[in-house]
Structure formats: C-alpha cells, structure tokens
Specification:
The complex is a heterodimer of chains A (500) and B (153). With 500 residues, chain A is mostly helical. Chain A has 23 helices and two strands. Chain A has one domain. Chain B is mostly helical. The chains are: A mainly alpha (500), B mainly alpha (153).
C-alpha cells in the first residue's frame, strides 16, 4: 500500500529526536496559549516565526502546526472552567462545558473534550493522508487561470467564515489585496504605494501585519474592558464520565469529527466554523434539545472534536494547493515561502519527507496532547490564574523584538504599531480581520496569475470561463457567494454565529 | 424620530474604506495601466481600488438604511499609551539598545492599564526585560544592541 509506505516515511521523519522535541514544544505552547484567553494561535505563530527561520523547514512546520491544533485542546479547558473561550473555536464549548462545571462535573467535561479531540485528531490525520495526494495530482494540471479562479473561490469562502456583514467582509478582502500590492511590482519592477520609503519596496511583511492586527490590536481592546473572571478550579471532580453519559458522547464525537473534517477541508472552513456547525447539528438531532445549555455532554464532545479535526484538515488545501483557508494557514504559507518552499501541489512529490513528516507528527502531537491535557490538567488550571496584567506586557515585548529581528528594521516596528491601531479600529467597528489577512497573502499571487492567464490567452478575459476546471471553480464561488448573500441563509448563518 | 445614520459603526467603517480606496486610486493614478495582454503595474491596483471604493460606499449606504449597533465609547488611554509604547521601543532600540527600549516599552505599556502604580510597572518591566535578554540575546543569539554605546569605544 502506497499510503502505508508514505506514512512509514513520515514516521521516520517525525520520530527523530529533534522533531519529537519540536512537536512537543509546539503542542505544549499551543495548549498554553489555548488555555490563556487573550492570546491566540495567530499572534503566537507570528511571534515564533522569526525563531523558526533557523530551524529545518520540516521541524519548524511541525512545531507551528502543533501550536494550532494544540490550541484547540487548551481552549476547551478555559471554556469549561472559566466560561471564557480560550480560543474563538471554543465559544460554544462554554455553554454546556461551564454548565457541567457548575454542577461539579468539570472533570467529565474536560475528559470528554480531550478524548473527543484525540479521536478527531487521529481520524483527521488519516483524512489528510488520504485526501491530499489525489488532490495535489489534480492540482498539478492547473494553469494560471485555474489558480486565479481558485484564489477567487478561497476569498469568497473567507467571507463565509467571517462573522457579521457580508459587505464588510468583502470590503476587508479588497483592503487586504490592496495592502498586499504595496511594494515593487514583480513583473515590471515599478514601485507601488511605497511613499518613497525603501523599507516598503519589498512590501509590508505579513508577520508585521499579523502581529499588529492580531497581537497589538486586541491588547488595546482588552485593556479597555475591565472586570474580573470567576474561575472554577476548586473541584474538577472525577475525570471519566459514567457509562451512559459516555455512550451518548461517542456518537457526538463521531459526528463532530465528521463535520469538522469536512468543514476544515472546504476553503473558508476551519476550527471556528467546525465547532459551531457541530454544536448546531447535535442540538438539532437531539431528542430533547432543552438539555443543551444545561450541561449536555454532547454539547462539549461534538464541538471539541470538530474544532480539532478541522484544525488538522485545514492543512489539506494549504499543502496541496498552496491555498490558505484561514489566517493560521496564511501564516503557514508565509513561513514556507520564507523557508524557500513554494506551497502548492509540488510539495508532496518534491518534498515527500516534509509532507508526510508533518502528517505523521500530527498523530504524535495528538498523543502528547492527551497526556498533557488529562493527567496534567491541574498544571494548566493553575496557569489560568496568570493575570492579564502580566500577560500583555510579555506579549508586547516578545512581539516587538520578534518584528525587529525579521529584518533588523525599526520601520517594521513602526508599521506594526500602525496595524495595531488599525486592528483595534476593526474590533471596535466589528470588521472581521481574518479575510483581510488571507487576502493580503493571496493578493500578490492573485495578481501574478491574473496577468499570466491573460498573457497566455492573448488578452482574452474569457479564458477564465472557457477552461472547464477554471469555469467550474468560478461557478462554485458564485454559488457560494449567492448562498451567503441570500437573505434566508444569511439569517441562518447569523443564528449559527450568535450560538443559540 | 429616526436617526440619519442607523448603524454608526458600519457607517464609519464604510467611510474609512472609501477614504482608503480613493487614496489608493489617487496615489496610483500615475501607474501605467498597460493592456489586458501585457498589464502594467497600474492595472490590477486600479481594479481593486475601484472595487474597494464601491464596497465601502455600499457599506456606508447600507448603514443609512439598516439599523445597527451604536458605537461603543473609545477609551483614549490604552490607545495612546500602547501605541506610544511600541513607537518608543522602535525609537530607542538602535539608539540606546535593548535594555532602554524594552524598559520604555514595558513601563509605558503597564501604565496603559488603569490603576497601576509606577513602582510595580518598573519592577515588572525589569523582570520581563531580563527574560527577553536571556531568551533573545543569550538563548537565540540575536545580534541586538544591548546597552547604549558611549562615544567611540
């Protein structure tokens, strides 16, 4: 079996001492930031990027991936014990998780979240291993028009992912593309929007944008809000839930894994959407929906399985098509480019050890996470009392030094301060920043493929609809856009996002 | 009595989008457009600029017609102090070295939170500066200026 040989190769890569260490560091860090509210995977990964440039590409991607799916585990701890989502993807876990904790069943909730995440993680690893190769074979046939259309689809999907107004999300995409155009035009060498600053001729660094908007912006917003939180650390209680509870949880875990895996693959999906959809599904099919919100174990099992599955399967479009579907994947694309790897269908064939190493490391990472999150849960609970008073200055200094060290440029620090303000304004005006970051990364690639497609087609714009694959992708994008705009669906979508 | 602007937050967002979109078109007016066959540096930016401005207008117009949330009050203290702290770090780093830059950043940033005392801020700043020095200069061996360089020495 091909798959087995490949996984074997992956295990060889993942099981070297170095990579085991980086995988462990990644998932431990992920759990940490998942537990701590106020710092998410985007900010953390951008902070660590400068450090990873010195590592082997495989090791650095294994570690960065671990941060992302590790955060999905940690986020549930905070949701259950503090009724605060440690991560955006754990918002729905708060509902039933905290309700369980109030009834003295915090241990059951924590255990089912960890078990569900582990099962989901293992299944999603197999989905990734099974789906990615055929998809990348297909993608090898893609030319410039197909890639352009694919990016249009990716951006449309980013709108689905965004909460709130569709119009605002579309505008944020245009904003992101525009920001991505700053710098030297790669085809002609002309300077665009650089205001005569030599620092801008290479464009604005994506880490600078990410840290400003996702690191600095939320700090300003968080400092505005005051008020303490009520932590539920006294009694975690028994971990393993009683048998009849567990029986109900298995089904929820299976469904959550399925929903999450599927939504992770789709462009625009990811951990957040996966957890919402899984919770909605559980509530819809339950015999007695009124139990939800009162501490239903399915309400913890399903979304926590889904967010972990989706976090892992969202690597599929990134690794096979070079298409980031959420901000974390956008950072991964950036990380790969800096390491000299062009993300796309060639990665699997040209660097099988990189691809299969990452896949295999995910399984290992999930094993670490179960150990970190079940027997050692008390450690993380204690960390919850780390006050934001200590946390935000630490984030600031690490971000600032990280930004400067990218290219020893003070200008980058100033620009990041500007993006911090912008990020704060976005939060205040309820403009979701995720589409902007995705568009920022995709923008230059989009322009490049747009130009090449038209040059190949001798200037005939019909090229995008006359080639069958490109046309199909554009039709899917159009349908998706129509669905999101259609009033009835819009109402449903708001319902999903506003939880229930 | 109807408000003229029914969704102030969205209206402001739309206005910002339009302003940035128009600015991009004005700044980019001199960029060569070229043809579809051989596009100049101005072609794609022009498309995006027009699209962005139009979307911004749509957001603003929708804000006049559909009810939305009122603007929350903006607290000036964290906005000004966090931004100032980051700028101070940038200003000091290459002139006076990491220790001064980091202390400036952290002390100003701590004061951004209400009810913090200066001695506590300085203590925390000193601790985090030490950690940053250990991690980045000692651990990762980043070539950072640590202390100010005096004279020609």
């Amino acid at each position: 079996m091909d798959l087995l040989t490949n996984l074997g190769l992956g295990l060889q890569v993942a099981l070297t001492a170095d990579n085991i260490l980086y995988c462990f560091v990644g998932v431990a860090l992920g759990t940490l930031i998942g537990v701590l509210p106020g710092i998410g995977p985007v900010a953390t990964i951008s902070m660590l990027l400068p450090i990873t440039f010195k590592l082997e590409p495989t090791s650095s991607l294994i570690m960065l991936a671990g941060i992302y799916y590790g955060a999905q585990y940690g986020g549930s701890t905070t949701a259950i014990l503090v009724n605060l989502p440690g991560e955006a993807s754990s918002v729905v876990t708060c509902l039933d998780g905290y309700a369980m904790a109030r009834k003295g069943r915090a241990g059951h909730a924590l255990a089912v979240a960890a078990i569900g995440s582990f099962i989901a993680g293992c299944v999603a690893t197999l989905v990734l291993a099974g789906f990615a190769p055929p998809l990348s074979d297909l993608a090898l046939k893609f030319g410039a028009p197909e890639y352009f259309s694919l990016m249009v689809l990716g951006l449309v999907a980013a709108v689905v992912l965004a909460q709130g107004s569709v119009l605002k999300a579309l505008a944020m995409i245009a904003f992101g593309i525009l920001l991505g155009l700053v710098g030297m035009d790669t085809t002609t060498g002309d300077q665009r929007y650089t205001f005569g600053l030599p620092e801008l001729s290479d464009g604005i660094g994506f880490v600078v944008v990410a840290m400003g908007i996702f690191g600095f912006g939320p700090i300003i917003a968080n400092l505005e809000a005051t008020g303490g939180r009520d932590i539920f650390t006294k009694a975690i209680g028994k971990l393993w839930p009683p048998r009849d509870e567990m029986r109900r949880a298995w089904g929820a875990i299976a469904r959550g894994t399925g929903v999450g895996s599927l939504l992770g693959i789709l462009p625009g999906g990811g951990a957040v959407l996966g957890s919402f959809a899984a919770y909605m599904l559980e509530k819809r099919i339950a015999k007695d929906p009124s139990r939800f919100g009162q501490g239903a174990i399915e309400g913890v099992a399903a979304p926590e399985s889904a967010n972990n599955a989706a976090a892992q399967t969202s690597f599929i479009p990134m690794l096979t098509l070079g298409l980031p579907t959420n901000p974390v994947m956008a950072l991964m694309v950036g990380a790969m480019i800096i390491q000299g790897i062009q993300p796309g269908p060639m990665v699997i064939t040209k660097q099988p050890e990189l691809f299969w190493g990452i896949v295999a490391s995910m399984w290992l990472g999930n094993l670490f996470l179960v150990i970190l999150n079940l027997p050692l849960i008390g450690l993380w609970v204690r960390l919850l009392s780390v006050s934001y008073r200590l946390l935000y200055p630490a984030i600031l200094i690490f971000c600032c030094i990280g930004i400067y060290s990218l290219q020893s440029s003070v200008m980058d620090v100033y620009i990041a301060a500007g993006f911090g303000l912008l990020g704060y304004i976005f939060i205040k005006l309820k403009c979701e920043p995720a589409p902007l970051l995705i568009a920022f990364v995709l923008g230059p690639m989009m322009e490049d493929n747009f130009r090449r497609a038209l040059t190949i087609a001798k200037g005939n714009p019909a090229v995008f609809v006359s080639r069958p694959i490109s046309a199909t992708i554009l039709v899917i994008a159009a349908i998706l856009l129509l669905i999101v705009i259609a009033p009835s669906v819009r109402k449903r979508r708001e319902e999903v996002f506003k939880e229930t | 009595m109807g408000r003229i602007v029914r969704a102030p937050g969205d209206f402001l967002a739309g206005a910002i989008f339009v302003a940035v979109g128009v600015a991009s078109l004005v700044i980019g007016r001199g960029y060569r457009l070229g043809t579809l066959l051989s596009m100049g540096p101005g072609y794609f930016p022009r498309i995006i600029g027009v699209l962005f401005t139009a979307l911004g207008l749509a957001v603003a117009i929708a804000a006049l017609r559909l009810d939305g949330e009122r603007l929350e009050p903006w607290r000036l203290r964290p906005i000004v102090l966090i931004t100032a702290a980051i700028l101070a770090f940038g200003f000091c780093l290459e002139r006076f070295g990491l220790v001064v830059a980091s202390m400036a950043l952290l002390v100003i940033a701590c004061l951004a939170q209400q009810g913090r005392k200066v001695p506590e801020a300085i203590g925390l700043a000193a601790l985090l500066t030490l950690i940053a020095w250990v991690v980045f200069v000692k651990g990762l061996e980043m070539p950072l200026l640590v202390w100010p360089e005096f004279g020609a020495s």
